[in-house]
Structure formats: C-alpha cells, structure tokens
Amino acid sequence: MGEDKFDVIIVGGGLAGLTAGIVLAEQGLEVLLIERGDYCGSKNVTGGRLYGHSLEKVIPGFAEEAPIERVIKKERISLMTEDTSVDIGITSKKFSTEPENTSYSVLRAKFDRWLEGKAEEAGVMLVQGIRVDHVLTDEDGKVIGIDAAEEEMYADCVILADGVNSLLAQELGMKKELEPDQVAVGAKEVIKLGEEVINERFGVQSGEGVAWMAAGDPTAGGFGGGFLYTNKDSVSIGVVATLSDIGYSDISVPNLVDRFKEHPAIAPLLEGGETEEYAAHLVSEDGIYMVPELYRDGVLVVGDAAGLVVNLGFTVRGMDFAIESGRLAAETILKAHEMRDYSAKMLSAYEKALEDSFVFRDMRAYKGFPALTANRMIYKNLPETADEIVTKLFTVDGKQDPDLVSFLLQSLLGMASPAQLLGLAGTALESL
Ligand SMILES: Cc1cc2nc3c(=O)[nH]c(=O)nc-3n(C[C@H](O)[C@H](O)[C@H](O)COP(=O)(O)OP(=O)(O)OC[C@H]3O[C@@H](n4cnc5c(N)ncnc54)[C@H](O)[C@@H]3O)c2cc1C
C-alpha cells in the first residue's frame, strides 16, 4: 500500500462515519476518517434522542461508559395554541427496560467525541479540521479517493458520511440538490438548569428524562414543531421549521425558538436557566423519497447523506438509522475487501442490506407521513379545536351547555368542512 493509499476513506465523523470506521478498523482495514470540525461532534446537531438499539450491535452495553444524558422514561406530545397546551403524556415502566429498547437524551458534542475515542481505539486514523473538497474518480468514473486541502488521498473505497447536504454525493451526481419542501431548519438551545431542578420540574428521578414534542404555536402555525429533551443538568429545546413554509408566519426560526421558550407551558420550566449553547442545522423531512443513489464503483453513501431520517411528529429518527447504515456499509466493504472487488455490483449488497434491515422497513412504513405533516390543519385548526374542546370539558361555571356530543360535532365542523376532515382522516390512515 502506498503512503497515501488506504483501504477505506470516510468523509465525515458523525455517527454514521464513526460507526463505519469502528467496524472496518476492528477487522484490520486501514481506515482514514476526515472530519471538517475541530473534533467529532463539534459541527453536529440533533434534538436529541438516541434510540440505542443500533449502537448496541456495535458496542454492546455502550450506555455504561458513553456520555448519555438521561434514559427517556416519559413521553409527552402537545398541541399548542398561543396560550394553551393540550398534552398527551405517558410515564411507563415499560419504556427503556432492556438496552435494545432504551432511548437516551444525548448531546452530540460530548457523545460523538466519545465515539471518536472508540474509533481511535479501534485503529481509525482521524484527521480533523480539514474539509474534503472533492471526490476523485478515474476515467471510468470509479471513485478512487478524495482531495482535501489540496492534497490527494486514495482508497479502494470511499464512504460519504458528510451529512444531510452532502455536496460530495451531489458532485458525483448521486444526490439531487435539496428542495425547500424536503428539508427543515432546526434551531436549538441547550439551557442549563441543574440536575435537581430538572428532576423536580419535570417530575423525574435522577438519570431519567422526558422527550416532549409539540405542534401548533411553536411554529406559529407553520409546518414543523417544537421539541424539548431533558439532559442531565440542562434541557435541549428547539424548533424544526420546514424551509418552504417558513414564510407562513413571517417569524424567523431563532425568534420561533424564543417564542417557544416563552410559551406559558414552557416558561416556568426554564425559569432561571442559562443558555449554554445555540445551534442550527438542516434536517431531512421527506423520508424515503430523499434516498439518493447509495452506491457506485468505489463509493457508498450513509446516514443523513443518504437521506435516512423520518420525522413523524411524535418522534424524529435519524441517529439510529445513521449508525445502522454505517455498520451495514462497513460489512459490505469487508466482503468487497475479501473478494478484492469494489465494483458497484459488489457494493450493491449495501442497498440490499438496508432493504432487509429495520431502516428501509421503517422508512417505507412511514412513507405517507410527509404528506400528512404537510397539512396546515395539523398546525392551525387542530390545536385551536383541541383547546376549545378540552377547555369546555374542564370548565364548570353553571352556564355551560352539558350536551357534549353536539358541542364536539360543532367544534369539529367548525375546524374544517366534512370533506376536509375526511381528507385528513384518509391521509392519516394512508400514512400508517
Ligand atoms: C434539530 C434536529 C433535531 C433532530 N432530532 C433527532 C432526534 O431526536 N433523534 C434522532 O435520531 N435524530 C434526530 N435528528 C437527526 C439526526 O441528528 C441525524 O440524522 C444524524 O445526526 C445523522 O448523522 P450523520 O452521521 O449521518 O450526519 P452528521 O451528524 O451531520 O455528520 C456529518 C459529519 O460530516 C462532516 N462533514 C460534512 N462535510 C464534510 C466535508 N466535506 N469534509 C469533512 N467533513 C465533512 C460534518 O462536520 C459532520 O460532522 C435531528 C436533526 C436535527 C437537525
């Protein structure tokens, strides 16, 4: 092997790239991972709840040593108007009982840095603070390496793990430019409150946490939603707003975050907190329809670069997909390495592996969600109607008409025409 020729070069040190690196290096392959941030995690943003099952396959029992924040034990979903929040919540001992069904709140700056340490231990060569500018191809179009900081480096195979706006996959013609209705801007703050304050205000024990998603007022009726996750001694709070619909409210995304923090259901929980971190990032919104070409001669695309995200409103999943795709890409390359064959035909096993895994199974199952979540009624009429109905149920003043059935019908018909309601119900059923 030449001085700057590796078995595999990985572009991007997020969860997808690091996982692929660990699996490959553990099997003795020479792996170079290039990350443009000063350290892994420095450029990465998530809400963030990590479903642990896919990392369990790579590092069993990882949560015992990884910097996880809290184990999610409480779920809450809310429909918010400007001054009310209608919530559905569940606290259950059935959540997070085994490592495979456990989810954790995480902060990527800490979590990815820990995973970076694992990649180094496995033998991955890490280069940080350098951006890969181009992918190198030979005269037949086969990928043979990369160009970073005007230096060319070669490999039998390149993994593109460079995130949602993968310029490199676009440069190769494997991925189209992102359309404004296919992505959202996510902006979030990490607000320090102290461990005891969080336990008391959110009604949780030490080590246990809450995942909270909200629709309606967080985006001022625009497509998207708000989220809040409890960390060990801070909360991650933010808003995800679909790019093409940002103009609906005329409020900028940072201002939406400020409004969300001031909502009457949220503000008391954050009182006295100090903002420690502010971040913004794109997130894929269009599910399975965003998946680009996943392989060509000498190259594979993983994680967000491969569009592997589902946003279901009640939860967002991208991290468990990123990890699984990194692992499956690495396993495909291990076989290719054995056969000394990095052709597109050989690497197509990666797509087949994704197809056989929970990644494509779940993405296909939720393929109707983007159509459902692009319905204004969910963000405007539904929160207002839910507020009206619930306010009526809980108001006793001696004046209320006790006929709840006709009130319910009136409220629903006030929300939308029967045809619109049927349309929404139809899209909802289709999306399931
Ligand atoms: C606001 C928000 C909330 C979210 N909430 C959740 C959640 O709660 N749960 C969940 O599972 N998912 C969530 N997601 C999605 C999740 O964060 C992503 O799916 C996940 O981070 C994808 O990991 P990745 O490794 O593929 O990409 P990334 O983590 O984006 O990593 C890509 C890496 O590539 C590097 N890079 C890019 N270009 C280059 C280059 N040219 N050269 C060198 N390095 C490069 C970047 O610096 C970065 O480190 C959320 C996303 C956002 C934005």
SSE layout:
Elements: E1 5-11, H1 15-26, E2 31-35, E3 49-51, H2 53-58, E4 70-80, E5 85-91, E6 103-105, H3 108-122, E7 125-128, E8 132-137, E9 143-148, E10 151-160, H4 167-171, E11 183-192, H5 195-202, E12 208-216, E13 224-230, E14 234-242, H6 253-262, H7 267-270, E15 274-284, E16 295-296, E17 299-301, E18 310-311, E19 316-317, H8 319-339, H9 344-347, H10 349-356, H11 358-365, H12 369-372, H13 376-379, H14 381-394, H15 404-415, H16 418-431
Parallel strand pairs: 1-2, 1-10, 2-7, 4-12, 10-17
Antiparallel strand pairs: 3-6, 4-5, 4-6, 8-9, 9-10, 11-14, 11-15, 12-13, 13-14, 16-17, 18-19
Helix pairs in contact: 1-3, 1-8, 8-10, 14-15
Residues 11-17, 34-37, 43-50, 131-132, 161-163, 186, 188, 238, 240, 281, 283, 303-304, 309, 316-320, 322 line the site of flavin-adenine dinucleotide.
What do you see in this structure?
The protein has 432 residues and is α+β, with helices and mostly antiparallel strands. It is built from 16 helices and 19 strands. Strands 3, 4, 5, 6, 11, 12, 13, 14 and 15 form a nine-stranded mixed beta sheet that branches. Strands 1, 2, 7, 8, 9, 10, 16 and 17 form an eight-stranded mixed beta sheet that branches. Strands 18-19 form a two-stranded antiparallel sheet. Bound molecules: flavin-adenine dinucleotide.
CATH H-level homologous superfamily name of the largest domain: FAD/NAD(P)-binding domain
The average pLDDT score comes to: 93
Bound molecules: flavin-adenine dinucleotide
Which percent range fits the helix content? Answer: 25-40%
Structural class from helices and strands?
A: alpha+beta
Q: Which architecture of the largest domain would the CATH scheme give at its second level?
A: 3-Layer(bba) Sandwich
Look at the structure and give the CATH class of the largest domain: Alpha Beta
Strand content: 25-35%
Distance between the termini: 51 Å
